[in-house]
Every structure is written in C-alpha cells, then in structure tokens.
Design goal:
The chain is mainly alpha-helical and 76 residues long. The protein contains three helices and two strands; from the N terminus they run αβαβα.
C-alpha cells in the first residue's frame, strides 16, 4: 500500500472528505468508481462522501480498525 495523497483540513467531516475526494478523483480520472475499492478507517462522513461521489465504489473498513472496535466492545 502506498499513500497517494494527503491534505490538511479544518476537521474530519463530510464536507472536508467530499472536498478532498472530489480533487483526488478528478486527478486520478475516476468518474463513477467502477472497479475501485477504498479501504479506510471509520472516519465520520467518509462513507457518505464516497457513496455520493463514486457510487459504484466498494468501501471497506481496515481490518486493524475493525479489530480495535471489536476489542473495545468485547473485552477479554
């Protein structure tokens, strides 16, 4: 895995994610997301922005974050 882009924003929210993803997808010439899978942590607003901008994209959660959340809910 390689980081391909990053930016600094006022906060991690749907508007910031949408702004960032619009520029990223434009630079990468991604139109509808067909054949694209995005793996991320569970950032607020990210899933909604992805679904709105590239409706055919698969969005999955990072296994490390799924495990961390599971561990919080099911101690021991």
């Amino acid at each position: 895995m390689f980081s391909i882009s990053w930016c600094e924003v006022e906060g991690e929210n749907e508007n910031s994610w949408k702004w960032f993803l619009e520029r990223l997808f434009e630079d990468l010439n991604i139109i509808d997301g067909l054949g694209l899978t995005v793996v991320s942590d569970q950032q607020k607003g990210l899933a909604k922005a992805i679904k709105e901008l590239v409706p055919h994209t698969e969005h999955r959660n990072c296994v490390r974050h799924v495990y961390a959340n599971w561990k919080k809910l099911h101690k021991g």
